[in-house]
Amino acid sequence: MAAQPKRGGVSLPERPSASKPESSILSRITSTPIISRGKQVASDAAFVSKKLIRSTGKAAWIAGTTFLILVVPLIIEMDREQQFNELELQQANLLGAPPTVPASK
């Protein structure tokens, strides 16, 4: 006698057992322990890859914003200083003053 489905529940069709001769070769191959272990390993690898990509993205964001906040203003200020020094050198050459060599320590 077949089991009665619960009220409001969904009844699923019976699963074919491995002893039935009409099961296909594909279903027999995909139900092997090696295939199921391979699927589990692939799932775990996908999970780790997703976490690694997310962490790498966060690290890239932190590095990028830190670079913008700390390094870019420094580069701009160094460029301004270089332009100012070149301007002073040009003015000194126009006025005929001897070029000054910065003292090295």
TrEMBL record:
- Which Gene Ontology cellular-component terms appear in the entry? mitochondrial outer membrane
Gene Ontology BP annotations: intracellular protein transport
Instruction: Report the superkingdom from the record.
Output: Eukaryota
Q: Name one Pfam family in it.
A: Tom22
Q: Which residue ranges run through the membrane?
A: 59-76
Primary location group: mitochondrion
Kindly give the CDD domains that the UniProt entry links to this protein: TOM22 (cd22884)
Q: Any idea where this protein resides?
A: Mitochondrion outer membrane
InterPro entries according to UniProt: Tom22, Tom22_pln
Keywords of the record: Membrane, Mitochondrion, Mitochondrion outer membrane, Protein transport, Receptor, Translocation, Transmembrane, Transmembrane helix, Transport
- Bilayer topology annotation: Single-pass membrane protein
Q: Where is this region: Disordered?
A: 1-26
Q: Family, per the entry?
A: Belongs to the Tom22 family.
> What is this protein identified as?
Uncharacterized protein
Q: Which organism is it from?
A: Hibiscus trionum (Flower of an hour)
